[in-house]
Structure formats: C-alpha cells, structure tokens
Amino acid sequence: MSAQLQRRLTLPLFTFYGLGSILGAGIYSLVGKVAGEAGLFSPVAFIVAAILAALTGFSYAELSARYPKSGGEAIYTSKAFGIRALSTIIGLLVTFSAIISIGVLTNAFVGYLEVFIPVSRALTITVAVLIATAFAIRGIKESAFAASLFTLIEIFGLLLIIWVGRHGLLTLPARVAEFVPPVDGAIWSGILAGAFIAFYAFIGFEDMANIAEEVKDPHRNLPLGILLAILISTSLYCIIAVVSIMSLSVQELTVSDAPLALIYERTTGSSPIVITFIGLFAIANGILVQIILGSRILYGLSKQRWLPGIFSRVHPTLHTPLVSTVFIAFLGLVFALWLPLVSLAELTSFTVLIVYAFVNAACVRVKLRDPHPAGVRTFPIIVPILGLIIIVGFLGQRLWGLIPAVSPVTHIVRMSVPQGDFAVDTRDPFTVCLGLAQEKDALKNCTLRAAKASQDDAECVDGMSVAGCFACEFGCSGL
C-alpha cells in the first residue's frame, strides 16, 4: 500500500496556517491605497471587504466539510457539475496562481532584504525558494509550525503598530461619529472602491481547503478554522485602519508606499527597521504557504486520476507529496527569475476571482441537490448566491477598467513632472509618461493616448514650478 497524507493538524495549527495565508506584506502598504479611495471611512471599507470575503468563506467552509479532500476547488466543481475538464482547469488555475505568487513574493523578499544589505537578486531568490521547499518537504506539521511562528511574528508587527498608535485609539469614542459615513452616493462610491482594494487583503483563506486531508476532525475543524481565520484577520485589519486614520492624514497615507512604517516612525521617532524586518517574515511565510498550496492541488488532481500519477506519490517517511512540491517550487523559481511579474500578479488576482466565482456556483448547485447532509454544518443558500453575484461584479468592474475608451468625447488628463524625477532618456517621452501614470495611479480606467515632451510647460506635479517638464495626456473614460 502506498504512503498517504496524515491528519496531523489540530484546529489551532490549521487556523494559524490560514492566518499566514491571509495576513501578509500587502497590509503593510494596502492601508494607504484604501485611504486614497475611502478617506476617513477606510475602516468601513475594510468591513465591507470582510463581508464580501466572508460570503465566499462560508462557501469554502461548507464545501470543505462536505468534501474534506486535497484538491479543494477542483473537487468542489467536480461534485457540483460532474465535468472533469472544468474541474481540472479550475485546479490548474489555482496551481498557476500559487506559482505566480511564489515569484511575486520572492522578488518582494529581495526588496525587503536590500533594506539591510546589498544582495544578489538571483542568488537570494534561489536560496529563499530552496529553504521554503525544504520546510514544505519536511512535513505538514513542521511546515504548519513554521508558518504559525511566522504568522505570530506578523501579528506581533500589526499589534506593535496598534500599540504605538494607541493614543489615537483613545480618542476614538469622542470622534466615532466622524467615521460613520452619511447616506451619500459619492461617498459610498469611494468606500466601495476602497473595499475593492481591501478585498485582496483577505485572499488566502481558500488555501486552507487544499490541506483538508491533513486536518484532524475535518468536518468540524475545516469550516471552523476558515471562519476563525477570516474573523481574526478582519479584526486586525479594521483596528489597523482606524489607527492609520487617527495617526496620519489621508493625504499622507495616500502618498506613502509604506504607511505602517511611516506611522511607526512618526509616533516613535525611531527608524521603522523593525517593521521592515517583520515584513521579511511575512513574505517568507507567504512563499512557504504557496508551495504547500500548489503541491496539494497537484496531489489532489493526480489522486483523482486527472493528472499523471507521479504527482500523487507521497514520501514513505515524511508523508508529503515530494514530486509535486519540488515541481511547484521549480516553476515558482523560474517565474521569479525570468518573467515580468507585475502583469502576472494582476493576472493572479483575476485567476483567484474566477475560482471564487466557480466555488460559489458549486456551493449553490450542491445545496440545491442535497440541502442538509448528515454531520455537516450548512449555511443559507442566499450566502453563496450573493457571493457569486458580487464576485462576478468585481470581475466585470476590473475587466471594464481594461477596455480602452471608445466614447466620442474623450476626457484629457494632463500631468507633468520635473525631468529630475525620472532617470529616463528625455528623448523617450512615452516612457516618461507611462512611468508617471504608474507612479500616480493615473491609469485607472484609462488608456494611454499620447505623450509629449514640452520645454515650456512649467506646471508640474504638486504645484512645483520647474522649467522643462514632461506633459502627459491620457484618454480616459468615466472621469
């Protein structure tokens, strides 16, 4: 008899594994982006995002209890629709998102490490992936323990920000009315835009379903662990959002790439190197979790005979899918070293949303067929229906933003920047304009229409008057 995965994860270890998937380096910069859309109502935006994530989380919770097997989303769609090709595609989409995430995270790891010492990018990426792979191969309990330790460090970093910003929190009772949004369409439009950004901070709970065969008492611990991870992360995010708004102005949050580090520096007068160091652990944790996720998906697909049997081979003593783990780590390393990760990271977001939509649809289909299976905690069918509608709406909004403006009336946004702000060839105004657009987030719902260099345009960014600025024009819709 071939070796099998073992159920070694208790509820606390499983919950911390999930928290490690949800919490990450993103929250250390995400608060500022949310504030740029929702302003003082950023905490409300996080609450809205948490509600949206919880709807899909409930679907994962119920389906994982119904079908506690590795392969997660692929198994759910197979049980719901019975289409092998669809289930295989869904499983491979999740695997693809894990591989790309490894590449994105390892590159981010290099950036954080360079704060301390100059490093070789290729060597650092390779070593980081190899160390994470060694942990993943060693065993799920050891991997989950390491992930739990890293997660505790991440949580400590967030609690540290809450502590240094506690004086602002003490004034919350007197100012709570300021954070209650009025019934105003324009204000709620900004809140929903902020919630769309904040939603990505909750991506990760779906990883928990893919280690279902290694969780003790899965019918109880799988749904409970998923919901606990979402609840804890929501609480931390909302408190961090309040601390951020109470500690810095909306303008400061919006322009900062590291708002939590700025809060630490502003409130303590010390270097934010501690927060940067914690960010390294957050990223390392993410790399480990993504390797485990990808390998378990391949294992589950192979066990269902949808992929070659080699991917479901389990090491006889370590009880981990060795071939799948090494394969995922290798592809993640390849993507990290050679491919353009910015566009691939955006593709990952689309991939995850597509998977969420299918999971909600699968939950609806399964509930219609078997509403109350024995021994499984179920939720009202309206939950996955709402989750499906909202996820499809999110996808539609994102796709709409990629469509070039075709309106006969084109709005022109003119932006300019001093020459010294970009180290680019002044004879290449297109590059200057594109760089400015990315830097200032000006490409939202926009398509670059034209760029020109002007030596007599003296109106520059932030009201500066500097001779010889580059002016950029964008054809935009919906401004």
Summarize the structure.
This protein is mainly alpha-helical.
Describe the protein's topology.
Layout: H1 11-22, H2 27-38, H3 42-66, H4 72-81, H5 84-113, H6 121-138, H7 140-164, H8 166-170, H9 172-175, H10 185-199, H11 218-247, H12 250-255, H13 259-268, H14 273-303, H15 322-338, H16 341-369, H17 382-402, E1 411-418, H18 429-439, E2 446-453, E3 469-476
Antiparallel strand pairs: 1-3, 2-3
Helix pairs in contact: 1-7, 1-11, 2-3, 2-10, 2-11, 3-10, 3-11, 3-16, 3-17, 4-5, 4-16, 5-6, 5-14, 5-15, 5-16, 6-7, 6-14, 6-15, 7-11, 7-14, 14-15, 16-17
What attributes characterize this protein structure?
479 residues, mainly alpha, Amino acid/polyamine transporter I, 2 domains, 3-stranded antiparallel sheet, globular
**Number of domain modules:** 2
Gap from first CA to last CA: 64 Å
Strand order of the largest sheet: 1-3-2
Supply the CATH architecture of the largest domain. Answer: Up-down Bundle
Name the poorly predicted regions: 404-479
Structural class: mainly alpha
Shape: globular
- Please identify the top-level CATH class of the largest domain: Mainly Alpha
